[in-house]
Amino acid sequence: MNLISLRRNVGYKLLSLLIALVLYYVAYSQQNPRTTRDVLVQLKPVRLSGELTLAQPLPTRTITVSGFTSAINALKPTDVSGQVELEGVGPGEHTANVEYAFPPGVRGDILPQNRVVKVRLQKKESQRFTVDAFVTGTAPVGFKYSDGEAQPRHVTVRGPANEVARVARVVARVEAGENERSVQRSVTVTAEDSQKRVVDTVEIEPKEVTVSSKLNTLPVRQKLLVSVDLQGQPAAGYTVKDYRPEPDQVVAIGPIEVLNGRSSIEVTVDVTGIRSDTVRTVRLRPPGGVRFEGEPTVKVRLTVEPVEPPPLPPTPTPTPTPTPAASPSPLPAPRPSAGASPGVGGSGGD
Q: What are the structural domains of the chain?
């Protein structure tokens, strides 16, 4: 009974369904009309031999797409692709077909000139580079990051000969975290030309390396007095009266644990056999891990004079011999008076 009723007026029922669909489409079209839009499509090669490469990048093409407004508004540039089929194509210049793909609800109006593209293929060139690793960031106070080390240290750059020739270096850059005490992480390497501009038309194998770095103490600057140590003896009869280093102090740069408490640096000067004023140039020998600012040499001016002989002792003055005193002469005897009798001690009597 039900089946018979369903079969009644089938034509009217189908017509009603068709009218309903048309009305729905008309209503939907009024609310969401069709529109067009131009999109820029980057052409990409597919099934290209691994031994070949594009001599120049493929161009972009402007394609007009159409569809309902909602679909066109939601369309992203990457939703439309243009693939260039290069399977079995060898080196040289070729005209290749382009196949476009569109998302559901969108179709493209492709002009004849956009369905083909000219490509020039050439064999890949390769060159080996040492990776320059750079570590940047804020190190703890008093420290700095050591030069980065890449592992592996070498990579291979492949591509068109003219593009490989542009590559001046391959770099790996790492940004250390704040106060990070050691660095070790994988990063993507980049090819750069002599102006440090990225060369993105080549391939790099491997694409990633591991960069490591550690903290080193910052070097300190300290002034050191130049101390002169004379060795040997001048020629006989000569002596070094004076010596003067030029400069008399130098600036040393090195670890604080090496320079802490040090105030001078000693140089050794050989004076063996010299007999006149002399200038000796001596190379400074720094402690381990220390370098000197400027030229690591000093000049030592030596003043040499003859040795003066010791003064002779004074000649002693002889003591004069004393002259003996003269004896007094005896007085003469008195003469006797007249009329007196000779005799000793006697006198005349009456």
A: 32-122 (2.170.120.30), 125-217 (2.170.120.40), 220-306 (2.170.120.40)
